[in-house]
Amino acid sequence: xxxxxxxxxxMGFVGSLVLTLLALTVxxxxxxxxxxxxxxxxxxxxxxxxxxxxxFMHIGETEDKKALxxxxxxxxxxxxxxxxxxxxxxxxxxx
Amino acid sequence: MSKVNKSVPLEYSTExxxxxxxxxxxxxxxxxxxxxTLFSVYFSLxxxxxxGPIGKELxxxxxxxxETFALLTSSFLIGLGVHAMRIGRTKxxxxxxxxxxLLGAVFLGVEVNEFLxxxxxxxxxxxxxxxxxxxxxxxxxxxxxxxxLLWGSSILMQVKKRGxxxxxxxxxxxxxxxxxxxxxxxxxxxxxxxxxxxx
Lengths: 95, 199
Known about the structure:
The structure holds two protein chains of two kinds. Chain A contains three helices and no strands. Chain A is mostly helical. Chain A has two domains: 1-58; 62-95. In chain A, α1 packs antiparallel against α2 (34-56). Chain A is flat, with a radius of gyration of 17 Å. Chain B has a single domain (10-198), classed as Cytochrome c oxidase, subunit III, four-helix bundle (Four Helix Bundle (Hemerythrin (Met), subunit A), Up-down Bundle), CATH 1.20.120. Chains A and B meet through α1, α2 and α3 of A and α1, α3 and α6 of B.
């Protein structure tokens, strides 16, 4: 039975639960400023994504891991430019 | 079929398998962009609520938490499924995959109920720009989960019928990547739609 629950995976799961609870603190403490809350959400969400990619999806386990990192990092960069570019043009530009 | 390499897990054991897994990662790259564009539109329209409700009035946290823990746990279970597959425990692997899909169904049930509650309260996709993009973003993720349930079930049937071989192991592994990815997307929806919405 024990061999079915590798330590790495269990730690990853505990990590993702802790990160979820951390993210929840932003709505539990009423006095928190928006800036602090958004920062906590950005950090916990990014950490969750890394836990999934590294511990569960094993992105670094094969010889072509460099190509995988390049593919995913490139997509994330394009995604971030899309999101923050849109925010700049459509939201922050008019504040 | 190309030569079988015994030094790597079954799902990587042929060149074709290797390329299929690599190709799937490229597909996930495209999925990241898909959801990034949907999030961009969401952030642009989140305050355009017109005469409809704002997020704070609409969102209810208990069902959202059920959805979040269902998907997080299912993502953990499918990871255990892949591990069981690698140590050759077909039965355990199938149990983990079945539990994964059941939790996926729980997620979907709660989400459908959430949509029905919104519509019942008069918040439909036509009520405001905010609700249009909210339902498009949630719906796109929900459709991915729905497709995942069908895809995962058919892979399970193949594993049951043919056992674990280079082909079925490859399919089961690729499905696990897809499922983990959906969990990552949900984490961002949970953080930047729901939690940010009720701040």
